[in-house]
Specification:
Layout: E1 2-7, E2 10-15, E3 20-27, E4 30-36, H1 38-43, H2 51-56, E5 59-65, E6 73-76, H3 81-84, H4 99-109, H5 112-120
């Protein structure tokens, strides 16, 4: 069963069958999906907590940007994003960033958990020896 919490610009889900916590944030054309943990989920909705900061501390799965700052772009950080967040109406611009550019963006801008999971999935940008 899916359990939800939501607020302005965010929505979080707990899937009790998979023991999985996920969330999305959206604001002015930016759309993000994250895997979060129980501690983050339990704090969401508390008036003393900034939900965006909490959610963005989770593992980044997907990013779509369609705002006046630049061309619409999607960045797939974890290819399983749709399976992890089947409840989310996923925003897509149609212009997917290459895996190589995504690797660079992840290395520069993402937290350690996101970088580690991407490397674990073989998306480190380096060719593996066969």
């Amino acid at each position: 069963m899916l359990h939800f919490k939501h607020g302005i610009g965010w929505k979080a889900c707990y899937d009790d069958e998979r023991n999985l916590y996920t969330a999305k944030t959206s604001w002015r054309g930016d759309f993000d999906l994250y895997e979060i943990n129980a501690e983050i989920y339990n704090q969401l909705g508390n008036p003393d907590v900034d939900a965006d900061i909490l959610i963005h501390s989770g593992r980044h799965l997907y990013y779509s940007q369609d705002n006046p700052i630049g061309p619409p772009t999607d960045m797939v950080i974890d290819e399983n994003y749709a399976t992890l967040c089947p409840w989310a109406d996923i925003q897509k611009s149609g212009n997917v960033m290459s895996s190589e550019l995504t690797d660079i963006a992840v290395d520069l801008f993402e937290n350690n958990e996101t970088r580690a999971q991407r490397k674990k999935q073989g998306k480190s940008g380096k060719k593996e020896k066969q």
